[in-house]
Amino acid sequence: MSLLHIENLNVSLKIQNNDALILEQFSLRMAENERLGLVGESGSGKSTLALAIMGLLSNNMKLTADYMNLDGEDLMKMSLEDRRYYISTKASIIFQDPSASLNPCFKISEQINEILSLHEIRGKKLMHQKAIELLDAVAIRHPENVLKMFPYQLSGGMNQRVAIAISMIGNPKLLIADEPTTSLDVTIQAQILKLLFEQKQTSQMGIILITHDFPLLAENTDKIGVIYSGQMMEHASTQNILNHPHHPYSKALLDSIPQMGQRHNKGSRLYALSGQIPSLENIPVGCRLGPRCNKAVKLCVNPPLLKSIENHGKVRCHSPLYEKKEQ
Amino acid sequence: MSLLELKNINKNYTLATGLFAVSQLQANININLNLKAGKTLAIVGESGSGKSTLAKQIIGIEKPSSGDVFLNNKKLDFDNSTHRRERFKQIRMIFQNPYESINPQLRIGETLEHTLKINTRLSSLDRIKKIEDTLLLVGLQKSHQFHYAHNFSGGQRQRIAIARAIILEPSIIIADEPLSALDVSVQAQIINLLQSLQEKLGISIIFISHDLNVVEHIADDVMVMYQGRVVEEGKVSQIFDEPLHPYTQKLFASTPAYRHRFQRTIPKAPVIKIKKESGQPHCSYVDFCHIREDKCKISSPEIIQTDQDYRIACFKFE
Amino acid sequence: MSTSFYIQHQVPSVYLKWWIDFKKNKLALSALVIFIFILLVAIFANLIAPFDPTTQFENATHIPPTWYNNGDVRFLLGTDDLGRDLFSRLVYGARLSLSLASLVVIISSIIGITLGSLLAFSPSWIDIPTMRIMSFILSLPSLLLAIVIVAIIGPGLPNAIYAVMLVLIPHFLITTRSAIKIELKNEYVTAMYLDGANKFQLLKYSILPNIFPSIILQLVVAFSSAILEIAALGFLGLGAQAPYPEWGTILSESHDYLVFAPWSVAVPGLAIFFTILSINLVAEGLRDVMNVEKNS
Asked: Which chains lie within 8 Å of chain C at 3 or more CB pairs, if any?
């Protein structure tokens, strides 16, 4: 059974009387206990997807979907309030900037207690005990002291640990981590990621790791979804994508990262896509990668569909790479 | 022969910690740097390691607390306006955030023209010619001179910033995290542009970054900084194949792409906290170091030259 | 805005872009039209007004506006207690109010902006105490401050103008100083400094064009508050004195007859109201198109 199953999710934003689609025909299936990585550039809609799953979209965005199943229940069939409550028991989210997601006016203990009381844990002593357990679990030394502090007194890494601790309170089945380490230093990044996946191990949950950093996904995920301009371009297992990216965009992303051991040679150049990600007002006709793609052919003026490819995964492209080899 | 040389640069900031109390923050400690013509030197470090402060000392926005900067073997006097003019012309800067480093109220052509007007004696026709040539050189079009910054995407803005840097035909460009505000697929475009410009114009680049992948790709020499000090410095092959300083090793072990290269996992050292107020000198990395000795807690290692192009600050290698 | 794939040969200048955006805001645009109308009335007051504002028709006091049954065709908006044509007084009043307000704003802005620029570049031991004093002045209601100043230097139109000027100077000073301070922190100013620009070039090319929006906005806002304060002082009998057709003075002369000649109060009151409203709506529209929030 799948933990998360989304069919044809569309999210639109009103821009000057036009509905611009931030996410278009987005489908996603994720198994229980899976580690899914979503990779995309800024403006590709990956954060919007996270907010859509969590039911946190702002009011000027419109969401439609055929089906949005989270742990066995269809969210689209629920009333707004039911959906909000249901999501809060099943899923939680960690944001990029921990100092922005924690309230600067309250002590850590108050913020933890607030969420604890939402999950029916009451009583001063019990709450305190539970809070210390939580902070212990995210490897914070001296949790008693940290509880008495305000977020600004802690470093970014510590704040992110607290945010992870808070997100663990309801024993969620799904954890969405939206660029959890982007604002942190490299050495801290490694610690936070390690912690995140330890938590996953102990509490048996699925995790969606949203990032723009391919190497980060390589060693931490089972499957990768590549998002471009609001569409899922390729969705396959991590090994398949890294070794045989079928979509030209996935390949371009991988090639544009300098490879290990590639040293300063005169005349050597990285592979670079020309242009930039299209803005919401002028999304190209047909394949959204079309104007930037060096493999584009006449056919690409028709929008491609997300098709399954045997022994690989799903690809949204008219002429996927490696196709001949498989036939 | 070296193009740019820094000798014993120190930079202290005075912080007001209370009503009358002040404390000193040492942002750069005893930094020596040697940049050769046409080469790329990468400065690597985490935030707070003093790499941006160092860039400010090199370019001349701030005056170092002590130490000298030599350009073409000529000592640069910070307060001398002729020296400053020459320095600003020879050493150009590319900022991290292209959304903030371009004046929004001026057309791109005007911005570039001011740069030329201030620094050269070209006639107005020659200036326009130069602006158009430079725009083409960085992969933009001639007509882009009539646009404003808000007409451009991040990648194009960074190209404009590069145009502004190279228009005076400098010998050194300092790029302070020039990629971190850009998308992945655009980052590669900018790296390629920097490399091709370097090959065409023979410019030296000081490339400040925390992205080890990019550094390995673009740099000739690497300098690793930690808490205001240089801890290790050498050729890219030396640093990336066999980093010796425990902090550099930690840095590689923390970066996903490099973790596999260093199969031996670094033994975890219990973190100790040394009272910083005691005034006792100590190695700045002693708290986290896995090869620390008692010596590291009572004295600070000097950076020493162990090889032709290699320097390290660690007692283990003295 | 996004770039298109095609070369645009005509990129509107920043100022033209402001105007294009401003035109889209229908409310602000109609406010601008009303304000220009008031301005034209003030400029051509001698052509528009049928009578001299001080001419008294002794047998025609308290005549209601023309559209009342006992109105008089000669007096469009009626007459006051001394038989002076209200319409003429109103039209000349527009000229008086707007010209006084312009004078006040021009002089106080020149002083305020100059001092503000100097303050922005001065060392902190001058800057900080001055700012404290200015904040203290700004914390007092400006009308109250103007009344206090007039009370000290004595009532009368010239003194009222000095008072309003003095009250407006701190606003310009603080706006300019903080706009420059914010501007100096911007990276593009550093970039220009690294081009070798001297202080004057920095101010001219980098700072002034970018603080221009804040200053324009402050000018417009100051203009509306100058009109209001001059009128208020006139109403309280501290500003323009009796025969002057100043709006506040007209209002105070006629408010005794509020019950049986309500038009004589309503007409100058509405004139002040519409003038201030139109200016403030224009300011609101300007604030939107110039994105001043980011500067102040």
From this structure: A, B
Q: Which of A153, A155, A166, A158 is nearest to A140 (CA)?
A: A158
Amino acid letter, B188: A
- Contact (CB<8Å) A186/B251: yes
Q: Across residues B186-197, what is the average pLDDT?
A: 86
**C210 → closest Cβ in B92, B105, B151:** B105
DSSP secondary structure code for residue A300 in this structure: G
Give the Cα separation of A195 and A181 in Å (integer): 12
Question: Quick one: pLDDT at residue C111?
Answer: 94
Q: How many CB pairs under 8 A join A and B?
A: 105
Helix (H) or strand (E) holding B32: strand B22-36
To the nearest whole Å, the CA of C16 is away from the closest chain A CA by: 21
Strands B74-76, B229-235: pairing is: unpaired
pLDDT in tens, B67-97: 888 888 888 888 888 888 888 888 999 988 8
What is the predicted ipTM?
Answer: 0.81
Please tell me if residue C121 touches chain B, with a CB cutoff of 8 Å.
no
Domain ranges of chain C: 44-295
Which CATH class, in words, describes the domain spanning B2-105+148-312?
alpha beta
Cβ of residue C21 closer than 8 Å to a chain B Cβ? no
Please indicate if any CB of chain B lies within 8 Å of the CB of C200: no
Residues 6+ apart with CB under 8 A from B201: B166, B169
**CA B268, CA B85: separation in Å to the nearest integer?**
50
Q: Of chain B residues 156-215, which have a CB less than 8 A from chain C?
A: 156, 161, 164
Q: Amino acid identity of A318?
A: H
Note the pLDDT tens digit of each residue in C188-229: 888 888 888 888 888 888 888 888 888 999 999 999 999 999
Residues 270-289 of A with CB under 8 A from C: 278-279, 281-282
DSSP B107: B
C-alpha to C-alpha distance for A280 and A274, rounded to whole angstroms: 18
- Reference A289, options A257, A317, A259, A319; nearest CA is A317
**Mind telling me how many Å the CA of B95 is from chain C's nearest CA?**
8
- Using DSSP's 3-state secondary structure scheme, residue A315 falls into strand
Tokens representing A55?
């039911």
CATH number corresponding to C44-295: 1.10.3720.10
A290 CB within 8 Å of a chain C CB: no
